Amino acid sequence: MPVAIITGASKGLGRALAEALAARGWDLVLDARSQEVLRESAAAVSVHGTRVEALPGDVTDAGHRAALVAAAWKLGGVDLLVHNASALGAEPLVRLEELPLEGLRRALEVNTVAALGLVQEALPLLRASGAGTVVTVSSDAAAEAYETWGGYGASKAALDHLAAVLGAEEPGLRVWAVDPGDMATDLYAAAVPDDDDPRPEPGSVVPAFLWLLDERPASGRYRAPALLEGRR
């Protein structure tokens, strides 16, 4: 069975992706900071009969990243790496003049540095897969100038560029930066707690990720809403 590592997998898009892959027979290594919530998510995913390793920890910790890859190796390797873990830099979001520099550093460490660190750790197994794939979860804030989203957007823009360069350097892999669009997630609620406008559930964009895995287009940046629109 193919093996995927998914970070930030205890809820939201990470859990929705885990459920979809489990239903397709993938074995999973799941990461999140909250041990209890991650355990509950892993139990829910395991009903599909998939093998699931749930490792709570912080993706900025090199030892934790190594443990994730080691767990995947025991399951058979790494065919897919999804970097979904994210940090905002400030909760709620604030203008750049107020953004704590430590918050910006945290966003960069989680969203960008840890993503590259995990790729570096997993690269030998991804290359050996024959269909190695890296998915970095991006944001429209990486490409558009939204007030208060500067720190988070900068970290995601940097992540997009890392993904683009990785795709150029590793032609044997597929490397996709995917902007999922608006979603009703805890991250968004923490970012803009006063926004009560309804947003799509994370599961609604999962078919776009599955399309990428099925069709395997060229490495690059993709918007999930556009992929879904093209399938209607």
From TrEMBL:
**GO CC aspect terms:** membrane
Q: Report the InterPro entries cross-referenced here.
A: NAD(P)-bd_dom_sf, Sc_DH/Rdtase_CS, SDR_fam
Tell whether Ribonucleoprotein is among the UniProt keywords.
no
A Pfam family found in this protein is: adh_short
Coiled coil segments of this chain: none
Question: Which keywords label this protein?
Answer: Oxidoreductase
Q: Which GO terms describe its molecular function?
A: oxidoreductase activity
Query: Which protein family is it in?
Result: Belongs to the short-chain dehydrogenases/reductases (SDR) family.
Q: Mind telling me what this protein is named?
A: SDR family NAD(P)-dependent oxidoreductase
- From which source organism is this entry? Streptomyces cupreus
